[in-house]
Structure formats: C-alpha cells, structure tokens
Task: structure prediction
Amino acid sequence: MSDLPTCRVCGGALREFLDLGDQPMGNAFVDPGRPDEEASAFRFRLTVAMCETCTMVQLTDYVRHDRMFHAAYPYRSSQSSVMSAHFENLARRFLADELTGPDPFIVELGSNDGIMLRTIAKAGVRHLGVEPCGDVAEVGRANGIRVVDEFFDENLAAGILATDGRADVVFAANTFSHIDFLDSILRGVENLLAPGGVFVFEDPYFGDIVKRASFDQIYDEHIFFFTARSVQDMAARHGLELVDVELLPVHGGELRCTLARTGARPVSPSVPKLLEQEKEQGLTERATLTRFADGVRELGETLVARLRDLRDQGKRVAGYGATAKSTTLLNYCGIGPDLVSFICDSTPEKQGRLTPGTHIPVRSPDAFADPYPDYALLLAWNHEDEILAKESAFREAGGRWIHYVPDVRVD
Ligand code: SAH
Ligand code: TYD
Ligand code: ZN
Result:
C-alpha cells in the first residue's frame, strides 16, 4: 500500500514527481507585530503528483479551504490593468454570445473585487458573485455587483437554483483549481446550469508550467493543474463534456475550458488539436516530469548563486510584486532579506507586512525609487509588460531586472 493519498478526481494511484519542501501559505503575509500568529507559523508539505489513471496533476497534501480563504484574504484582482481589460473583454463576450435570452443569469465563483462581474452589472444583466472572503466580497459590492460571501459547493448551488433559477453561464477564473472538493463543485454546476448552459473556467495551464519551468505556480491555493486531457476525463464523470479550449497569454499561460452537458453543444476542433499537442509535448510521460523536476532544482540553484554573488559585491537588490507564487520561490530557494532587502507591491493589504516564511518587508511601489536598488527581482513575472512599462525610469537610471522564468537572466 502506498502512503500517498489517492486522486481526488478518480480515486486512482498518484505518482509524485516534485517536492518543494515545507511551505507556508502563499498569501499568509505576516504582521510584523505578531510574527507567531497561527496563520504565519502554519506549514505544509508542498509536493505534486500526477494520477496514473486520469492524469490529473494535483498537490498530495492540501490546506483546508477556510484556512486559505477568510475575511482578511489579501489578493485583489484589479491591481493589474491588463487583467481588468482581460475580464472586461470576456464579460462583453458573454453578453454577446451567451447571455442573449429573455432573462439571462450568470454566476461567478471567486468573484473577488468584481473585476469581471462589474461589466455584467453595468449592462443590467442578472448575476451573482460567490466570494467567501468577506473583505473582498465587500469591495465587489462597492463595485456594484451582487455577492454572496460563501463557499460554492453543491448545497450552495441548490440554494441559488431555488432563489434565482438556472444559470446560462457559470464562470470561475483562478478559482476552480483552488478547491479540493471538485466533485461537489461539478455536481453543483451540473444541477445549476440551464440545459444549454456552459461552465467556463480558466486556470494556469500545466503545459505552460512545464514549458517555462514556472514551478512557482505551485502553492497551497493551486491544488489542481489542468490539461485538456485531464479536464475531458473529469467532465465525463459528471455528465459534462469539454466542448472548447483556449490558451490564454495572461498569468504566464492559462487554459480556458468550456464544459456543456454531454451532447448539448458541438465539440470545437480546438479540443482534439490541444489533446494532440499535449501528446506531442509528452505531458503525461514520466521522462517529461523528471526533466521538469530537474529543471526546477537547477533554476533554484542558479538564482540563489546569482543573488549571493550580487550581495557579496555589495549590490542592493529589491523584489517587485509580492505574489503568492513568490512564496514558493523564496521559501524553496531560502531567499530572505539578506538577499532581497524589500519587495514593492501595489496592494495596500500586503504593504507593511512580511513575506510568508521568509520575512522580507513588503512596501508600496513608491519606495522603489527612493532610491532605486541596483537590481530588481521580477517576482510578478506574469505582469512583466505592465510593470516594465510602468517602471521604465528604473532601467533608464541604470537599474537591472532579474528574471527567472523561463530561466535566470539579467537585463
Ligand atoms: N477570479 C479572480 C480571483 C481569483 S483568486 C481572478 O481571477 O483574479 C481566487 C478566489 O476564489 C478568491 O477570491 C477566493 O476567495 C475564491 N474562492 C475560493 N474558494 C471558493 C469557493 N469554494 N467558491 C467560490 N469562491 C471561492
Ligand atoms: P498575481 O501574479 O496576480 O498573483 P499571485 O499572487 O496569484 O501569484 O499577483 C500580482 C502581484 O503583483 C499583486 O500582489 C499585485 C502586484 N502588482 C504590482 O505591485 N504592480 C503592478 O503593476 C502589478 C500588475 C501587480
Ligand atoms: Zn485520477
């Protein structure tokens, strides 16, 4: 008998391929006055496995949902203008293509600060955001959306069905992959959807993570890493079918999946095309996963060597973007304030706090130029274009960016 837990989608055996050590929660920013708080001291083992049966990539150990998502959860979606435009465009597409009936209704899981639903609300279309984190749910309300601050599951879905009726669209961005009770979510969605309705979700794509060695996409909240193959299999277990896929450039490469009731919609050619591409990439092969894990170790060693070298030369290095992703990177590599003296981040809820586990101070971006550091480690690498454009004066003043995805590079 294996010690490993079994697959949370199909119950199959798991094959572990990467161990990122003991880690704090990615968004557990530390109050400097209370560093021993329970949430700050909490650690779990961050290991990733693939199911031998359905190929779903998943964490073997995971953190309870209400430990990660609570009133004080600090993530705010609208800090990025690129993401704001991304979700506004998607909302417009839903309005034009899916929400065209006499009294359409859309439900969003993980509506956060209302980044997507505010466009739907402005259009006067019936909607409901489901957002369990109280503070950010309130920001969504202030942005004009209707929100229930609870965790979506099959019971909540039944409640929504009773009060609001069937949904034409259920949407979830960077949320479905964060929930360990996927089966309850899928039962709830299946029950809530109108006969011709769709469940659309977008999450980091495992194909891109492997291609870019972007292992910092792996942290407590990212429990599942989807591929077209694993999603197709999972959907079929719930009477649903994968009818469309799109690869998105945001957040370092995401997969948007559209599920419909089996047989209700034609399957787009994009689905067999991506399945073929995944086969060519060898995404489920042992050798690919071993190569990925070897690449992670190498990347970590190269980055730390570079940072130590800069420290020994007396250079000043700051970080840019106190992402949840960076929690994995910094803790895995053992990068603390001796190597990166502070990190700038535009989120007021993170400023004045310390990074989870590594205790690097988080400051406002105003501190960046005061004075500029010699080097800046781009931790929010998924927002590279936006940040480099905003901070172009740093390069002009002689500053250098340190990138680490897909490999360590200074420019
Ligand atoms: N959709 C936004 C926010 C992603 S962060 C974006 O793409 O930027 C993930 C969000 O999912 C958090 O705000 C968290 O509170 C929410 N969440 C976590 N579990 C949930 C559940 N079971 N039901 C609904 N929302 C959930
Ligand atoms: P993000 O990569 O979206 O998410 P995650 O935490 O899931 O890894 O986080 C981006 C972080 O970078 C967020 O804390 C806001 C910050 N940020 C800035 O400080 N300046 C910017 O211009 C942008 C786009 C983001
Ligand atoms: Zn499985």
Remarks:
- The pocket of zinc ion (ligand 3) is lined by residues 7, 9-10, 12, 51, 53-54, 56 (CB under 6 Å).
- Residues 286-312 form the longest helix (27 residues).
- The mean pLDDT is 97.
- The first strand starts at residue 14 and ends at 23.
